[in-house]
Design a protein that fits this description.
mainly alpha; about 0% strand; 6 helices
């Protein structure tokens, strides 16, 4: 799966002393979303926080979209709450992805 390759590249970055940032992590979450990897997308959000890389709206939108594609509506809605608690403002794309997830649940 493509998400596994994306996660491998993130790990290779770390091994080469190149620290992933919000852009590279969000791209990896997007790769998870495109290949039905909703759980790895959620795991990446957690890894970002643990590595002091603060997810942004794009990071969350990709993860919520991954949850929608995986028919994980509750996870998608939960992520909106997490965004609120962490002062990350959702946008139209984020809400649309969450609404789509609810339609698949």
């Amino acid at each position: 799966k493509q998400w596994q390759l994306a996660l491998g590249l993130l790990e290779a970055m770390k091994n080469d002393s190149v620290l992933p940032n919000v852009v590279t992590c969000s791209a990896a979450i997007s790769a998870c979303e495109k290949s039905d990897g909703w759980q790895p997308a959620l795991d990446l959000l957690e890894i970002m926080w643990n590595d002091s890389v603060v997810p942004n709206t794009i990071s969350y939108a990709a993860a919520i979209s991954a949850c929608a594609k995986g028919a994980q509506w509750q996870q998608a809605v939960d992520l909106l709450e997490v965004m609120n608690k962490r002062d990350v403002l959702p946008d139209l794309i984020t809400f649309s992805a969450a609404i789509s997830a609810c339609g698949m649940g």
